[in-house]
Write a structure and sequence with these properties.
The structure holds 2 protein chains of 2 kinds. Chain A is α+β, with helices and mostly antiparallel strands. Chain A is built from 4 helices and 11 strands. Chain A has one domain: Beta Barrel (OB fold (Dihydrolipoamide Acetyltransferase, E2P)). In chain B, helix 2 packs parallel to helix 4. Chain B has one domain: Up-down Bundle (Four Helix Bundle (Hemerythrin (Met), subunit A)). The chains are: A alpha+beta, B mainly alpha.
Chain lengths: ~150, ~150
């Protein structure tokens, strides 16, 4: 696990180099969530809306919208696909994203339309970590993880 | 007395907010054709007018004035524009599908984004424009008026 200005950046995930991480689960299924620096920048999340299971999304469309007192934004998907599962716990308690953005607070699982090319627009490994560190510096983020 | 570019851009925010509020009213009354027309007027005004003037004239002038090509403020604002364009497409689809619940959810997020985005521009960008623009904003004002007059 890489860490920069207090922000955790798992090296095994794929990133859109903005807010979103992607984890391949096999058989064309991918889990999507938001990064530690993104959850820090957003502040304490108070509302999460996640698209219903069965929703078809084009690449770049929002699978979820998140709101805190000071911020609102969407969670775009990097590939076209169908929502096959959403994290119902986040609808009740969006603040979980501030606590465990890479674990219990995953947002949705999608079945990619074209699994072979689903990761074409996302990045992983040292190149991704370096780009995310630049993102953190650019927006002057100092990560703080909530514990409750 | 001629209004300065900052005041004109701020007034454009207010004009666009009003069109969006009218769109929301039309959706709540299930006047779907009117809602689609109003949303398109809003989208045209903000995407083809307001954002074009900002991205082609105001941001570059501000970046140059600040002494570099990249600036965290304009990067954040450009990213905001990119995100908003996707939301506007999703709002148009919600109206097309006559899905008031989806539209209202999207509207809530978009209004929060716009409120924060506009406040940031009005506090951190617009006050510097008259100084940052070589012609004090004359071209930008003309461009905005020209784009506003163009039909969607």
């Amino acid at each position: 696990m890489s860490e920069f200005q207090g922000c955790q950046l798992p090296e095994d995930l794929f990133y859109d180099l903005d807010y979103v991480w992607v984890r391949p689960e096999g058989e064309g299924i991918f889990t999507i969530g938001v990064t530690d620096p993104a959850q820090t920048m957003s502040g304490r999340l108070q509302k999460a809306r996640i698209k219903k299971v069965g929703t078809q999304l084009a690449a770049g469309r929002h699978v979820a919208t998140l709101e805190s007192g000071k911020w609102a934004g969407g969670v775009p998907v990097p590939f076209a696909g169908e929502v096959i599962e959403r994290n119902e716990a986040l609808l009740e308690d969006p603040h979980l994203i501030n606590i465990d953005p890479y674990g219990d607070a995953w947002i949705a699982k999608l079945r990619a339309e074209d699994p072979e090319h689903a990761l074409d627009s996302v990045h992983t490994g040292p190149e991704a970590i370096e780009a995310l560190q630049a993102w953190i510096k650019r927006y002057d983020v100092q990560c703080m993880r909530c514990s409750d | 007395m001629t209004k300065d570019i900052g005041t004109i851009m701020q007034q454009d925010h207010e004009r666009l907010d009003q069109i969006l509020a009218n769109t929301a009213r039309a959706v709540s009354e299930k006047h779907w054709v009117e809602a689609a027309q109003l949303l398109e007027a809003f989208r045209h005004g903000i995407v083809d007018g307001h954002m074009v003037v900002e991205e082609s004239l105001l941001f570059p002038a501000f970046e140059h004035w600040e002494g570099g090509e990249e600036h965290p403020l304009t990067e954040l604002l450009r990213k905001g524009h990119k995100d908003l364009r996707v939301f506007f497409t999703e709002m148009a689809e919600a109206i097309e599908n006559q899905d008031a619940e989806e539209f209202t959810d999207l509207l809530s997020t978009v209004q929060t984004i716009l409120q924060q985005h506009d406040a940031k521009e009005e506090a951190e960008l617009y006050p510097h424009l008259a100084e940052a623009l070589p012609d004090h904003g004359v071209e930008a004002i003309q461009q905005l008026h020209l784009l506003q007059e163009e039909k969607a």
